Amino acid sequence: MSADRYAAERRQGELIAAGQEHVWGWSGPAGELRASRRARFLIDQAELGPGIRCLELGCGTGEFTTRLAASGCELVAVDLSEATAAVARDRVGDSAEVIVGNIETGEGLEGREFDAVVGVSVLHHVDVHSCLETIVPLVRPGGRLAFTEPNRLNPQVWAERHLEPLRRLRHVLPHETAFRARELRSIFEHHGLDVDVAEPFDFLHHVTPARLVRPVQRLERVLERTPLREIAGSVRIAARRPRA
């Protein structure tokens, strides 16, 4: 039931806000690079900059909110968890508006319109169809959407969702899913969006030691030209709402 999922997400938010943010893997040399890659993809594909009204879904503690706000866009960041939203609000100051809301029901987002909607690792937490039914109408015609999500074909992602000890260790909630790139494309197209990019990416694991980051990057460039690209750690998607 939705109420159970929402309650689980709020409890998870309290855990993260209490000092478990490291489980998201954005710290350390490799984690920082992974975060930078995702932020750059969102900024480039959503064409963020001054005068662009952007909505960030599932902002958590604001790791990506600060990066997105640096583009100069007019940023609204929303999260279901009051605990993580409070951390994000302290983190970003006046550079973005951080609100508590529900991206499946639209609670907290009533009457708003955006030029872009973005998010990192958020759609796999929600009923993606309900989310898009609510969010797409908030995007102006011609507006853009960009997301990165875990790849269902990646061995670690698969294990985190099927092996209970690893799921608990990685703080993965029972309802969390993952996507294949072609599946995510199909979902976005079902909701009337024109998809520009839908592909697997990123073989760099967040625990990679600093001395191995460059060798792994070189290996990535090779793997991305082979069928093994399908098992990369994440998928990314960029789409547009058609003009009337």
How would you describe this protein?
There is one protein chain. This protein is α/β, with parallel strands linked by helices and 244 residues long. 41% of the residues lie in helices and 20% in strands. The protein has nine helices and seven strands, in the order ααβαβαββαβαααβαβ. The protein is globular and about 45 Å long.
Write the layout of secondary structure elements.
Blueprint: H1 2-20, H2 28-45, E1 53-57, H3 63-69, E2 74-79, H4 82-92, E3 97-100, E4 114-120, H5 128-135, E5 139-150, H6 155-162, H7 164-169, H8 181-190, E6 194-201, H9 210-223, E7 234-240
Helix pairs in contact: 1-4, 2-3
The helix content is 40-55%
First-last Cα distance: 36 Å
Radius of gyration: 17 Å
CATH-assigned homologous superfamily: Vaccinia Virus protein VP39
Helical run tally: 9
Counted beta strands: 7
Question: CATH topology, which one?
Answer: Rossmann fold
Biggest β-sheet: strands ordered side by side in the sheet: 3-2-1-4-5-7-6
Please, how many domains?
1
Percent in strands: 15-25%
State the shape: globular
* Average pLDDT: 95
The stretches of 5 or more residues where confidence is low (pLDDT under 50) are none
- Secondary-structure-based class equals alpha/beta
Element string (H = helix, E = strand): HHEHEHEEHEHHHEHE
CATH architecture: 3-Layer(aba) Sandwich
CATH class category: Alpha Beta
**Main sheet makeup:** 7 strands, mixed
